[in-house]
Amino acid sequence: MPFHPDTNRHRKNYVLIGLLTLAPIAILIALMVGSVSISTQDVFASLLGRQTTPSSQIVQDLRLPRALGAFSCGALLALAGVLMQVLLRNPLADPYVLGISGGAAVAALLAILAGASGWLLTGSAFAGSLLSMFIVFGLAQARGSWSPTRLLLTGVVVAAGWGALVSFILAIAPAKNLHSMLFWLMGDLGYVNTVWPGITVMTLGLIAAMLAARRLNILLHGPLQANALGVDVGKLRLMIYLLASLMTATAVTIAGSIGFAGLIVPHLIRLLGITDHRWLLPGSALLGGSLLVIADTFARTIMAPQQLPVGVIMAMIGVPLFLYLLHRSNKPL
């Protein structure tokens, strides 16, 4: 039974208010919890610059950049997931389906083999992501035109090629490099050294996606109907692909390959009754960011002082959650 418009609007407001509340709570918990517990009062004093204690240094130099990096990464993956599902008209599409993470992985592993770290490592991963993006799109429109199906098939094949190269690099890598390589492949926020690139791309990407939200709603009804309603489907698809690819490349650069955030978060928001992209996009960004902050907090604390790759925790959360969503839904996601 469909919701009354006013009821549906109120539901959207309640959901977004709840997500806006969840995000700062998740970040606050991430700042408080760890191998060294810090009180709420000390956290706020550290954020306001009122302390120069070891606790303040832990908050400002370690936990805050990591929490903000996790939030921006989760938000970027969730937004890219929404856009990919619209572009490919496939509810199982996620940010990595077109092989962008594979290109980043190959470049990052080669950088690790060469002894690179910091900006050189993240820059190599970003360059690999962009290379994969241009390869997939170039091959998909080799004959002057492309379609979502052709793009998907090209991306799957390119991703398989990158996967083979990753396996080859791991096979020949010295034992001393394998640990850092595996952590990067499983997703690790320990490499976060600055938060501004992720936050900037997240903000600009969300604004760009919101400006196209009405057209995204129309495109869901099919390209023929979208064309009939005045939407330039070709330009819109290209914008979606470039925007989703850029956000995915940035997320992979921040934390490596983290699965499930871009797949399950949009479905969670839809199951809460939000399908309009004017609400779905910001809701997905907030939930995706909060979910990854929570997962990273578990990764840092569950076996403290030893840290686990956040991608492992995200998979442990994502697999049962997605199976639950499939079981709970009475119609295809």
Characteristic terms for this protein:
single chain; 333 residues; mainly alpha; ABC transporter involved in vitamin B12 uptake, BtuC; 0% strand; globular; disordered N terminus
Short description:
The chain is mainly α and 333 residues long.
Sequence of secondary-structure elements: HHHHHHHHHHHHHH
Number of domains: 1
Number of helices: 14
Largest beta-sheet characterization: none
Name the average pLDDT: 86
How large a portion of the residues is in β-strands, by DSSP E? under 5%
CATH class: Mainly Alpha
Shape: globular
Count of β-strands: 0
DSSP helix fraction: over 70%
CATH superfamily: ABC transporter involved in vitamin B12 uptake, BtuC
Radius of gyration: 20 Å
**CATH topology call:** ABC transporter involved in vitamin B12 uptake, BtuC
What is the CATH architecture assignment?
Orthogonal Bundle
**Poorly predicted spans:** 1-7
- Amino-to-carboxy terminus distance: 17 Å
Give the class from helix and strand content and strand pairing: mainly alpha
Reconstruct the topology from this structure.
Elements: H1 5-32, H2 40-47, H3 54-88, H4 100-113, H5 119-140, H6 148-172, H7 175-186, H8 196-211, H9 213-219, H10 223-228, H11 233-255, H12 261-271, H13 277-301, H14 310-328
How would you describe this structure to a colleague?
By secondary structure, this protein is an all-alpha fold. The chain has a single domain, classed as ABC transporter involved in vitamin B12 uptake, BtuC, CATH 1.10.3470. The protein has helices spanning 5-32, 40-47, 54-88, 100-113, 119-140, 148-172, 175-186, 196-211, 213-219, 223-228, 233-255, 261-271, 277-301, 310-328. α3 crosses α12 (261-271) and α12 crosses α13 (277-301). Mean pLDDT is 86; it is low at 1-7.
